[in-house]
Amino acid sequence: MAFQSKKAKTLAQTIDRDKLHGVDEAIALVKANATAKFDETIELALNLGVDPRHADQMVRGVVTLPKGTGKTVRVGVFARGDKAEEAKAAGADVVGAEDLLEIVQGGKIEFDRCIATPDMMGLVGRLGKVLGPKGLMPNPKLGTVTPNVGEAVKAAKGGQVEYRVEKAGIIHSGIGKASFPAEDLRANFDALVDAVIKSKPSGAKGKYVRKIALSSSMGPGVKVDTAEVAAA
């Protein structure tokens, strides 16, 4: 059983765990309960009617949160020559080729997103066992294997997030910080939910968005009424 501080228990008692809240009400409750000494991340959990073990039920994609994430994203880029210079000019934190391969193979990963030019994928493919489990493997479908590395770096730095359904059929993603105005969190909530709905796979049966919950890093979860989410 997870340890709960006295403060966490007190906060949890202010939330009716069975009540479904409107989106704006849920955001207000979560913000009110984010009382830690640091700027807590506001997290969205979507429980979907899919089984990701089947290829036709996988949900994965990228979306740009219009109000940003509130986080500093470190971007690593595998590129050579002019493309490497383009990546650096766009603000990439780590850029390289064989030299970067050796650093990553040595267990040093100093980036949160990984981008590669198409010609580098033969090299990057050798890092599958290292980058794959961390969800960092560049992927053309996610826009992280691209000749337009400058644009990809700026997108990653500017609020673009990846979402991917986990084994239990749940997507977890941050939608901002507790310090964000409620309307900014709502804009990010709408953008992410809309992207997930548009990513509905062909194999999904029955109700697609089954449950939605919002929480802060240290606060209790608040259930959101899925009836507010169009086309769910």
From TrEMBL:
SUPFAM superfamilies: Ribosomal protein L1. The keyword tRNA-binding applies. PROSITE patterns: RIBOSOMAL_L1. The keyword Cell membrane does not apply. Keywords: Repressor, Ribonucleoprotein, Ribosomal protein, RNA-binding, rRNA-binding, Translation regulation, tRNA-binding. InterPro entries: Ribosom_uL1_bac-type (IPR005878), Ribosomal_uL1 (IPR002143), Ribosomal_uL1-like (IPR023674), Ribosomal_uL1/biogenesis (IPR028364), Ribosomal_uL1_3-a/b-sand (IPR016095), Ribosomal_uL1_CS (IPR023673). Transmembrane segments: none annotated. It holds the Pfam family Ribosomal_L1. It comes from the Bacteria. One of its GO terms (cellular component) is ribosome. Belongs to the universal ribosomal protein uL1 family. Part of the 50S ribosomal subunit. Protein L1 is also a translational repressor protein, it controls the translation of the L11 operon by binding to its mRNA. This is Large ribosomal subunit protein uL1. It comes from Sphingomonas colocasiae. The gene is rplA.
